Amino acid sequence: MKKLLLSIIPLTLLIVVGCAGKTVKIEDIADMPLDQILIEAAEHIDPGIVTETSEHPVVEWPQPEDPVVVTFPEYPVVTERPQPEQPVIAETHEEPEKPIEVKFPRVGMWRVTGLGQQGNWTANMVIDQLTSAGFSGYFQWRGGYGNGGTEFFRGTYDPLTRKLAIQGYRLANARGIALDRYEAYLTSDGKNLESGTWSDGGKWEAKWEERT
Length: 212
Hints:
Blueprint: H1 2-19, H2 26-29, H3 34-44, E1 50-52, E2 57-59, E3 108-116, E4 119-130, E5 135-142, E6 148-158, E7 163-175, E8 181-186, E9 192-198, E10 203-210
Antiparallel strand pairs: 1-2, 3-4, 3-10, 4-5, 5-6, 6-7, 7-8, 8-9, 9-10
Helix pairs in contact: 1-3
């Protein structure tokens, strides 16, 4: 039993004492009693690493230092999704519709149809002269029972309301007709006169025919 202990204890003593930075030879302790060997070992061991919890010393191995943990601040990861390209829309500038240019008064002839107290009437309304104040011309009237004749007139035109105002001032070869006052409205296309009236309650209209 002693031989077994002597073979184990020196090895243990070498490890323990070696950790304490001492050098112990096996032959120095080979013939020592067990108690003496333990005493020798205790003298060589650093008291800071030996704790006597029983009759045999207990070796406490130094604990390794805790590793230093380095932490880095966390930054949010922002992932931007690529936005789809917007289609390029070519700007188109539509030209506004040009208003119909109505030229009136203008030299030429209108075909007139009318209805008065003496029945139906037809006439050629001829505008033959333009003046700073308006226009002038004549009617060539034809009615029933041989009535008719020429009525010379002067007229004005309001482009805001497209209203014509015509006043007869002289008759020639007249039969069954008299000087009268006439009104009518030019249509937006400038080709017709509508909603016409004359002073005795007659109604008339006219259509642009041709130039004289």
